[in-house]
Write a sequence for this structure.
């Protein structure tokens, strides 16, 4: 694959330890950021915010952070939303209802259980009519979504918003997924450098296969078991002086990413 060069204009992040990307940078610099409250998802209208499940609120929160940093108009932004597990809490509730009383299954809960629910809420709330998509690739969901968003940005010569998030599992699903805490992140990617450029990315598919880059030693428990936290090595490079990291894209295929901070 020919290397893909593109530019980061905005970064979003939320977990029970980090309210945003600035909090992650503070931790990497040796500070102790204050634990955040629940995601505010400020871009959602109040009625929608009350109705939206946790998975949607988390995805909209990190997407909104990246958007605010970039200064872009959300109505014109193509977007890619990714999740390995979708809304595990709702899926658990649906499975429990089907086992106990199938006729009581809630259509609203089913509506919220699908993987494109965050994209739907986002595009309605922001008035976005640009293309949107949902990506799921298990533990490799972030890497797959990053490649998808990058390809779109370069092929269409337009900025693309990428958001990847997963909430904690519940019930038997938690036993299967091992995802016991929430984590979400977002990147605003552009095909050309601009006044809000934060860093340059170069994506390649190396000929060899090796282990994924681990998160920094200062983040040993940042999001254990959450597939979206596969983004942490890249986020750490964006928060620091740049460098290279490797993320697993498939069983024997990696995504090699070089990060060069803007001057």
């Amino acid at each position: 694959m020919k290397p893909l060069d593109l530019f980061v204009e905005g970064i979003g992040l939320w977990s029970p330890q980090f309210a945003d990307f600035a909090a992650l940078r503070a931790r990497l610099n040796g500070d102790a950021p204050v634990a955040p409250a629940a995601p505010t998802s400020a871009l959602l209208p109040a009625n929608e915010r009350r109705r939206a499940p946790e998975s949607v609120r988390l995805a909209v929160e990190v997407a909104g952070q990246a958007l605010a940093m970039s200064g872009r108009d959300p109505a014109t932004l193509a977007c890619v939303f990714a999740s390995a597990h979708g809304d595990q809490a709702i899926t658990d509730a649906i499975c429990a209802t089907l086992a106990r009383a199938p006729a009581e299954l809630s259509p609203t809960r089913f509506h919220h259980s699908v993987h494109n629910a965050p994209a739907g809420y986002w595009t309605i709330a922001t008035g976005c009519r640009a293309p949107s998509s949902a990506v799921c690739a298990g533990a490799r969901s972030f890497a797959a979504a990053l490649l998808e968003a990058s390809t779109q940005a370069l092929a269409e010569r337009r900025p693309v918003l990428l958001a990847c998030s997963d909430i904690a599992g519940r019930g038997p699903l938690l036993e299967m997924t091992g995802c016991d805490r929430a984590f979400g992140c977002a990147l605003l990617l552009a095909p050309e450098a601009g006044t809000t450029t934060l860093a340059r990315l170069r994506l390649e598919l190396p000929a060899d296969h090796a282990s994924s880059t681990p998160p920094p030693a200062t983040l040993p428990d940042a999001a254990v078991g959450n597939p979206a936290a596969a983004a942490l090595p890249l986020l750490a490079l964006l928060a620091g002086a740049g460098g290279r990291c490797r993320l697993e894209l498939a069983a024997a295929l990696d995504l090699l990413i070089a990060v060069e901070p803007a001057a």
